[in-house]
Amino acid sequence: MKKLITLLLALGLCLCSCGEKEKETDKNDSQSKAESSVQSESTDETTESADESTEEDSTSAEESTDGESSEEDRPNVGDLEDITPYIKLGAWKGINIAKKVEVTEELKTQILNENYLAKYATQEETDAPAKEGDTVIMDYKGYLVDTNEAFEGGEAKDAELLLGSGKFVDGFESGIIGHSKGESFDIYLTFPKDYHEELANKEVRFAITLKKITQTVYPTPDEKILKELKFDSVDALNAAVQKEAEETVYTENLTNVWAAVLKEAEVLAYPEELHKDHVDYFIDYYEGMHKYYATYYGMEYADYLQAAFKMTEEEFKADLEKNAKEYADGALKEELTAYAVADAAFNREVSDEEYDAFVEKYAADNDMTIKDITTKYTRDEIIENILWDKVMVYLYDNAVFGAQTE
């Protein structure tokens, strides 16, 4: 069972700075080479290259092979009765957030289109300037600004890109927005300092020619679409969209509240055993994941690391250890802060009524029985989730939006 705050973690389990998008070894055409130099860095996309059945057969880093949670025997901040030697809260109750995010018509339209009508949408070519959400076909070639020499992997013909997808390095997609079909233009940007060695922190120029722009056209829901979406009426569909929009802005506002509380909190010291556990967990998780991918691609681990990251095993492990420490620092600060709030706000108390209500809701939301949950998770694990939930609700309910903190 993951903590409810998982989606709000500022750091999370992101791969280390070596996390350049993994290149598929069976693609050698010019576009894939070019994309390797301009695509943004993401390790999550690697999972898309393996089919779902293979993924399901692999053992998760978060679960043991017998299905029991591997978290059960790990040390936890909740095991510490006194956390005052480790964390000092700043402003937390009634913390000020400058602006509250509200539900807008634009947000509701986005949710309607993306979550309900996407499969009914059509693509239509347009002569209008490119905007986010459009798909463009283009030629591009990249040059180093200081030498004006083309760099390897920076060229593609008839490349297709959905603007706003985030697949390309920051500045590339936004630089296309506003240009029209038939235009040739340059985009100047600087690669991130943690990009792969040849281009890290380099200023580059991309010469781009837009050859085609298509826009996504979403239909007005008719009776057939409503039936397929299992809604009795447009009003029922709109009500579902409204609910999702409210949940979206709640999550965004809560994220802002939690980030503000974290910013004000000060770590005095890290519990050594817990810090080491977090570091080891991070390293084991990502080493295991990439060894799995190496096996999936039929490669030796060292060859896989060289192809994916241009790193030796020693270099990869060193970078992984560095980022594991950063992950541990961030994760422990969140956990310590949450428990400090729980201590201050309600003394970590969880009533039997709160416990039962949480288990019932979790069972309903996850299509499980109460027995399934209480068998799979210990009472302490369930209470930990309840505490996180209570902390977030407490902080949100007591936050002050748009006024100064007293």
**Strand/helix succession:** HHEEHEEEHEEHHEHHHHHHE
Strand portion, in percent?
5-15%
- What is the rounded Rg? 24 Å
Coarse morphology: globular
Number of domains: 2
Counting H and I runs of at least 4 residues, what is the number of helices?
Answer: 12
Amount of helix: 40-55%
Overall average residue pLDDT: 84
Tell me the span between the first and last alpha carbons: 37 Å
Main pleated-sheet profile: 5 strands, antiparallel
- The assigned structural class equals alpha+beta
Care to count the β-strands?
Answer: 9
Report the uncertain regions: 2-37, 41-70
Description:
This protein folds into two domains: 4-28 and 37-92 and 265-401, no CATH class; 122-217, Chitinase A, domain 3 (Roll). It is 44% helix and 14% strand. The protein has twelve helices and nine strands. The strands form three sheets. Strands 3, 4, 5, 6 and 7 form a five-stranded antiparallel beta sheet that branches. It has a two-stranded antiparallel sheet with strand order 1-8.
Map the helices and strands.
Layout: H1 30-38, H2 52-57, E1 87-88, E2 96-97, H3 105-117, E3 122-125, E4 135-144, E5 150-162, H4 172-176, E6 184-190, E7 203-217, H5 223-228, H6 234-264, E8 266-267, H7 272-296, H8 301-309, H9 313-346, H10 352-365, H11 370-376, H12 379-398, E9 400-401
Parallel strand pairs: 2-9
Antiparallel strand pairs: 1-8, 3-7, 4-5, 4-7, 6-7
Helix pairs in contact: 3-6, 6-12, 7-8, 7-9, 9-12, 10-11
Gist of the model:
The protein is of the alpha+beta class.
Task: Write out key terms for the chains shown.
9 strands; 2 domains; 406 residues; globular; 12 helices; Chitinase A, domain 3; two-stranded antiparallel ribbon; disordered N terminus; alpha+beta; 5-stranded antiparallel beta sheet
